[in-house]
Amino acid sequence: MxxxxxxxxxxxxxxxxxxxxxxxxxxxxxxxxxxxxxxxxLLDALTNGFCSVEADIFLVAGKLLVGHDRGELKxxxxxxxxxxxxxxxxxxxxxxxxxxxxxxxxxxIDIKSGGEATYRALAEVLAEYPGLLxxxxxxxxxxxxxxxxxxxxxxKDIIAADDPRFAGIDGRLADLESIAPSHLLPLISDRxxxxxxWRGEGDFPEAERIKLHRIVKQAHAKGRRxxxxxxxxxxxxxxxxxxxxxxxxxxxxxxGLRAFLSP
Length: 263
Known about the structure:
Layout: E1 2-9, E2 12-19, E3 27-32, H1 43-47, E4 50-60, E5 63-66, H2 79-93, E6 105-111, H3 115-126, E7 135-137, E8 140-142, E9 146-152, H4 156-161, E10 168-171, E11 187-191, H5 206-221, E12 225-229, H6 235-244, E13 248-251, H7 254-261
Parallel strand pairs: 3-4, 3-13, 4-6, 6-9, 9-10, 10-11, 11-12, 12-13
Antiparallel strand pairs: 1-2, 4-5, 7-8
């Protein structure tokens, strides 16, 4: 037995199927920054209901290894082992979704090594998961359980030309006016402190609140989501992001954001 709830997310209404027991509530706005640094990469995020995770990758001897810098890399910590294989297994068990009846799950892949070579290796790996990943073929977009978005060293032209393509590009605020289709540029991300002085203490300056709402409105008008990174871990700031309709709220504090977003 399930209970269906409709949650207002700014410009968008997200229908979420909430299991009475067992699975956590899927939190469409919850993004696990540097997810691989948690005790159980991906699994801790899923236990907390997160619908978006971030994995940094390096291309090393033909393998895509996950870690923040080269000193953290281990041969067994591959993108396939930590993320793609368990996501495929979960999707198969949940009728093509990561959470039963839940939203599309976002896997944000931050490329740390050379953009062109790493993306070419990544594209070959992603092509092994056609039933799991949203993608385009001959310009036609098909939504599936997981949406991969490439951040960091983005080989934009190569990604855009790929066919079939199983990943989109993470944009920046400078891309708000881009005419790229939303399946190619599905997300606008940027560093919070590069555009806002407020750190969650005291009142949010009205001029900055207006700016934030304008950014979200612009992105949504083109079918793109919004995320800011390096945001202070404060509920006051999370509240302003949520009220403005920011789609992905960035955090390292999984239980804290889960408590904040849960009804």
